[in-house]
Amino acid sequence: MSSTKTVEVNFDGLIGPSHNYGGMSDGNLASKTNAGDVSNPREAALQGLEKMRMLVRAGFVQGVLPPLARPNFGFLVDAGFIGSDANILEQAAEQAPRLLKAAYSASSMWTANAATVSTSADTEDGRLHLTSANLSSMLHRSIEHPETTGTLAMIFEAEQAFSVHAALPMHADFADEGAANHVRLCGAHGDAGVELFVYGREAGESVDGFPARQTKLASESIVRGHGLNGARTVLARQSATAINAGAFHNDVVCVGTLDTLFFHEDAFADTDKVLEDIRRAADGLFDLKPVVVPRADVPLEDAIKSYLFNSQLLAWPGEDRLVLLAPMETQENPKTRAYCEALVAGNGPIGRVQFADVRQSMRNGGGPACLRLRVVMTPEERAACHQGVLLNEAKIDDLQAIVRATYRDRLSVSDLSDADFAEECLTARERLLHALDLSGLV
Ligand code: SUG
């Protein structure tokens, strides 16, 4: 935490007490496959915190974002339910179970979808910009952004250093899923870089198959809002093949950091053009190192099942090549395991693969990369942000103790109508917010 350099800070989502398998996300194969299963919110949150601990121990600066208030009673009231909390839950369970699941979703854990972030070295006004994602494509996610904006505004309050933007207009033309469709490439984190925005459709375009959750218009609007240099910005179309195979975000088939872009051969509609555009934008800044995974080695289906690419690509302290922090499922899939062995045996930019157990989240389609929002920060920006969300091991211990004391280890969708459970969720969150010195969010 004492680094005097500009570093990439990962803000992981602290998994909330209502984590459940609601089957809410069309086009997300894991969410559909595991719909209705019993979840274990306690284990989910502990797994997430252990991943954060691994990075703290390795010497990374690690942040955390608290869960949103769930159930979201305001949403249920907007949907016409009235009366006491218990009445609202009971009526919603009876008349509109899908709305009840949406109101309870713990989906804010996937903070790669919280916002798009541009570091201060890339922006015109020299401030760090964050735009909350409207997540307009999925009902349960579309209700995240007002609270997310509130959380980010509190953490990144110092106006001389940060600019937090509210979500883009809530219309399908502006569909935006945040950093999951955004990659920043550079020579060193503190240098100006190239920002790559990946979209699945144009505004107004209707596509066949699974939903394309990001529009080009949304990405362009963020480029404008953040004051990015057009010459250092690349917009690339995701391939329909990838989306229809279950890559509902680009980070299911692609991850990049520093000068390295690791991606599947089928990730982009036109790979040659993407590489050419990035090289042009990076001219004079850095030499791009692409690592393209051929479908002959890893078929798209295996990439998506194993979440090989939904990994954190990290400049691990003390190691001279990058480390891929991948989910355990990547080790268990014979194709991706063999690929990883060959990858590190070669002399490319990735020198090691480390595995993390985030199975509870994975069963809803969220791997290590989904669980974190990357914020590249100077030492001054780290000092200017809210300190309560920067973690050390003692704080992780405190958070885990709260999770052990307040979270259930079994949750099924039928439990969501129980008013006592709603109370439990809100109490657990209050304790977590207190530990993070964020009680103002209650
Ligand atoms: O939006 N799953 C999330 C997973 C998000 C993963 N994020 C990134 N790839 N960055 C989604 O589809 C499932 C919830 C449920 O079905 O209960 C869900 O929302």
Can you give keywords for this protein?
single chain; 442 residues; alpha/beta; L-arginine/glycine Amidinotransferase, Chain A; three-stranded mixed β-sheet; 17 helices; 15 strands; globular; binds N~2~-(3-carboxypropanoyl)-L-arginine
Structure description:
With 442 residues, this protein is an alpha/beta fold. It has a single domain, classed as Succinylarginine dihydrolase (L-arginine/glycine Amidinotransferase, Chain A), CATH 3.75.10. It is built from 17 helices and 15 strands. A three-stranded mixed beta sheet has the order 2-1-15. The protein has a three-stranded mixed beta sheet with strand order 3-4-5. Helix 8 links the parallel strand 7 (194-199) and strand 8. Helix 2 packs antiparallel against helix 16 and helix 16 packs antiparallel against helix 17. The mean pLDDT is 97. Bound molecules: N~2~-(3-carboxypropanoyl)-L-arginine. Residues 21-25, 28, 31, 105, 107, 110, 112-113, 138, 141, 180, 248-249, 251-252, 364-366, 370 line the site of N~2~-(3-carboxypropanoyl)-L-arginine.
Summarize the structure.
It contains 17 helices and 15 strands.
Write the layout of secondary structure elements.
Elements: E1 7-13, H1 29-33, H2 41-58, E2 62-65, H3 73-78, H4 85-95, H5 97-104, E3 115-118, E4 128-132, H6 139-142, H7 145-155, E5 162-165, E6 182-185, E7 194-199, H8 216-226, E8 233-237, H9 240-244, E9 254-257, E10 260-264, H10 271-281, E11 289-293, H11 300-306, E12 312-314, E13 322-327, H12 328-332, H13 334-345, E14 350-356, H14 359-362, E15 372-377, H15 379-384, H16 393-406, H17 419-435
Parallel strand pairs: 1-2, 4-5, 7-8, 10-11, 13-14
Antiparallel strand pairs: 1-15, 3-4, 6-7, 9-10, 12-13
Helix pairs in contact: 2-16, 4-5, 16-17
The structure holds N~2~-(3-carboxypropanoyl)-L-arginine (SUG).
